[in-house]
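Bug #77: duplicate submission created two jobs. Keeping one. Sequence:
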Amino acid sequence: MVGFTGKTMIGVASIESPSYGLDTVESAKLSSNSSILLEKLFTLKADESVASVASFKDITKEKGDMFFWMSSESLYNMNGANASGMGALMASNMKKITEGAFTTASANFEAGKIDIDAYSYTSKELAAIFKKYPMEKINLESIEKYPSDNIFGYAAVNFDLRMIGELLKMMGMDGFANMGLSEARITLDDLLAAFKGEITMVGSDFSTVAAPTEWDSTRTKPQLKWIFSLKVGDKAAFEKVMASPMVAQMLTKQGEEYVPNMPLGDDMAVSINNKRVLAASDAELLKTYDAGTGKAKIDGDALANAKGSVGAFYVDVEKIMNAIPAKEMELPDSISTDLKSLIKSVYGKSDQISGEKSHSSGQVIFKDQSKNALTQLFNFMNKVYTWTNEKRKAEAAQWGDYNAEEAQVAVDSMAADAAIAAPATEE
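Kept job's structure:
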């Protein structure tokens, strides 16, 4: 249920989803409870609301049209504090991880883009782990040497995998992990020390190709090229892991390389040595990438913006959408055309953690740079809603279930929502 005032919109929902087939009495009770809660929320005093929380006050000072605040501790207390069985054994340790932790964010809607800033504040226990195993800057070269001018996305991160071990120990789960690895004759520490955690993934040349079957001659499937790169950490630990029965049954060492015991086919190639682990969509791409003779071409500032970050991603939405045939979307031409011409790209990055605070930022770039991003989103969603409602009415009428009075209520509700707190729409 949603309520409005001249300046504020508040929405409430039941955490426990109601069962299907609610009768009139149950529906009325649920609606009444929501109305009471909405009225209470609109009349809260400042010292009774989130407005009294210092961290929320801080984020509202940032430039933004929309703000977000979430307490990880409160969320855990709501969902995990009453855990039973195995969950109960972890409860006290999980409380250490979430105690005092919260996340804030702001979103600013401008002409042709949405700017997002987020801040995460960890618990003291978690901050101690980050201090012990600090994250490092991503290696941009691992992206830059990808040999393509048709890249549709990348993701990169650089962290010490041993922090995963510390988290498992904090939750009391490291014993179970070691028990599972015992048959492989390695420990959790061996596995996490063997690899550095400098991970890169890049994708390019996304397309949709024909893949007919005897049952469907029009079937298609996505096709793309990709690379996955993982740096090796401690070489002694790496050799121990690779020599374990778990890995030895899949890979055999030949010279400096570990070679698969079974053919991988034409859709995947791997190259593993004591410096890095590489996997790719084909052997030629892997060879060129490993040689470092390629040059990546990425539109805009998506690569430059990742410089100095400990984690970053980029998706060229336009390239992906343009490669999907309109008929595969099963949407009216007007909507599929608008969808393809809505968003150009999305990217985000995370900065190095400072004490108990970390900062992340992102941006959604729209193809139309002349109109406000919120207006564009609202116009598109309004068009989709209108089409969906008309489709529902047509299907109901076909089966004799159409109720004109209920349909008009839905239309009136949409019109009321559009009249209150809605951005300007195109003429």
